[in-house]
Design a protein that fits this description.
Oligomer: homodimer
Number of strands of chain A: 3
Shape of chain A: elongated
Largest sheet of chain A: 3 strands, antiparallel
Strand order of the largest sheet of chain A: 1-3-2
Distance between the termini of chain A: 46 Å
Helix content of chain A: 55-70%
Order of helices and strands of chain A: HEHHEEHHHH
Radius of gyration of chain A: 21 Å
DNA sequence: TTTTCCATGTAACTCGTTACATGATTTC
DNA sequence: GAAATCATGTAACGAGTTACATGGAAAA
């Protein structure tokens, strides 16, 4: 339900059309959810059917016509419900990268350390990128801060693993 | 490819049948991947077709017959390839829980803090559980240690957010 | 004796993705 | 004039899940 929450939350701030929603999500919220274009359009259609949002066709000049979505009272209620549920609970995360770690002794120690050094470097690059993101408005900043916090924690973790592997 | 890596890695240690693989994954590796029973059987079939593993039917006493899977030389090669790729790269993680945070100002400050306190408590419970897991053999321990490290970091993060919300 | 565990599967379905189609408009 | 961007969609496909089916054995 995170995708619905996100779409409703964005539409709550001001009405938007599908393309706009999608591109905002792609470049500002890519750490939380990933939402392809066709999926976004489909979700918006579904939400319109449910009565959470209304659709208005707009055509400016000779541009391709836009479908502008606006939150309804029902949509606002749903948003509140989803928001409370999201804030109160922990969304589980799967660490696919741990599978390799579980079998790290299948490789020569030195090679394993080399490979993890590569992982470390990639992580460091991502951390630098996250730190370079300009400050966002309001509580959107939490999303960026969290990413920085998480990546720093992962970096420390990889260092700990490398250290342990070196020690033996 | 994490699922394949995991299955190959487990079969590398010793031959196993599908049910055994699935139940091990469910209770020891649930933090890395999630793999339902039908998916596990399907994956094993596919891997057999690819020649990574062989299948032998075994029937012990009057029990339901088992299909025992054993790694082939090709499977070992594939395992090595997948393992190196996994260790060297960062597997991206999506923080669905951040969507709520991005809209936290839609709620009265006090209520938001209350909801995050619930999240905090759930997190704390998970952390206690992870810490209570008995020590595993070899590098499987990394998986547990990472979970503990991650949950502790998330707990600190939630505390920071709550603190920031209290301060305004 | 009824439930749980062992052990394997099939069939239907949902969700989401990829690839494609369309067409105007701005940028290089 | 070509490429990228704006703007919306459809159609085909695939991966994975749920629900169901089977049947013996052990435990409660």
């Amino acid at each position: 339900m995170e995708r619905e929450l996100l779409l409703l939350g964005l539409l709550r701030q001001h009405e938007m059309h599908g393309y706009e929603l999608h591109s905002f999500i792609e470049n500002a919220m890519s750490t939380c959810v990933d939402l392809k274009k066709p999926t976004a359009y489909l979700l918006l259609d579904n939400m319109a059917t449910l009565g959470w949002i209304t659709v208005t066709e707009q055509r400016a000049g000779n541009r391709p016509p836009r479908k502008v979505y606006r939150l309804t009272a029902g949509g606002e209620a749903e948003f509140q419900r989803l928001l409370r549920a999201n804030l109160a609970s922990v969304v589980a995360v799967k660490f696919g990268g741990d599978v390799g770690l579980a079998f790290v002794d299948a490789l020569p120690r030195a090679e394993a350390i080399g490979l993890l050094a590569q992982r470390r470097q990639a992580l460091q690059g991502q951390l630098a990128e996250s730190k370079a993101v300009p400050v966002h408005a309001g509580s959107f900043q939490f999303v960026i801060d969290h990413q920085v916090h998480y990546l720093a924690s992962e970096l420390a973790w990889v260092d700990k693993v490398i250290e342990q592997l070196c020690a033996t």
